Amino acid sequence: MILDLFAGPGGWSRALQVLGVRDVGLDWDPWACRTRAVAGHLTIRCDVARYPVWPFVGRTRGVIGSPPCQAWSMAGKRLGLLDQQLVHAAVADLAAGRDTRARLLAACRDERSLLAAEPMRYLYALNTVGEPDWVAMEEVPDVLPLWKSYAAVLRGWGFSAWCGILNAADFGVPQTRRRAILLASRVRTAQPPAPTHAQLAEPESLFGPGRARWVSMAEALGWGATDRPVPTVCAGGGPGGGPEPFPSGSRKTLSDARERGSWMPRPDGVVLPSRRGSAGWAAPHSTRDNRPAEAHRWSWSLRSNNQANATVRPLDEPAGTLFFGHRANECTWVAEPAIPSATAAGTDTPAVPEPIRITAREAGLLQTFPADYPWAGNKGQRFSQIGNAAPPLLVGHLLAPHLGVTLDPDDFTLAA
Questions:
Q1: What is the pLDDT of residue 395?
Q2: CA distances to 31, 36, 399 from 403, in Å
Q3: What proportion of the chain, given as a percentage, has pLDDT over 90?
Q4: Which structural domains are found in the chain, ordered by start?
């Protein structure tokens, strides 16, 4: 079997599913487990830190691990950084067969910090029978020093090991999500996969195959093509100069906007604004005295959170790292003029649309989950699962060599 520790809603499992393999996922979160179950992934709901290892000994081919990142993530308090020495000590002790977790946990500033050492407990027990063949783990960048400790232990057990930082956008994910990766194998040289994408397209040359341009949010969401809707807001607010479609305080989503008519297919002959390639247009409207006002064009971007230093990316670029978990990390679509307004004197001034909350479906697509992935729970629980998940397309690139299969990115077709 392939053992998936801290499996979450199924980022690794979805990748394995596409590659024609299944795993057994262990996770504590009830809503992540429900999402996995509906998606068809084998799941044991349990506390990974307490579950016994013996059921897996003698039958495990690969081990996957994505420990909870809240204690280390930029989106949280990052108390895990203060616990680093304790976590390194736990890894060293577990690798030697000594279980000192209770004593070390009592000294941790964040009780979740020590979860990053749990995979070593499983690896130590499995190594006694020469398992597994390979290991693949993923975490936020600050965990890289810990992965180096893991790699040193695994090399001592006869593994080839590599660890480093990979940018998900370099592998076709519409998000510049940087992750610390650990790869190890007993049967092949461990090395990172070759990037398939770059910030600027690179043509094929004598030095190797070319790389496509990073996948934009518009491409991943299916917006901007001639047969797809693009975000539009008419100059007077609503269609035909009617009421503003998103009044102050509105919690409407872009999906709501499409249903209400403020999203429209791009008509023939309309040229999208050229500002960094972003899409968005608006039809002219008439004022109360029937004088035509110049069309006002909007450029839509995704803002990663509500904080002052939030990453804001236009639709023709990948998203920044998606953070969820509390209100300050809410991701919203924001609009700004793509072309300066030249509304004639005496006419109504176009109102900038209110920020629009991203939907779970849209966030899942930007993580490379399929559009119909069955996220379970309320809104907060769904977004928490999405933000913590490993992007299936990224980890698919990591897993394919270990499985001896070829990854076809077209199998990860997203927008429906």
A1: 98
A2: 29, 22, 6
A3: 61
A4: 2-200+388-412 (3.40.50.150), 224-314+323-366 (no CATH)
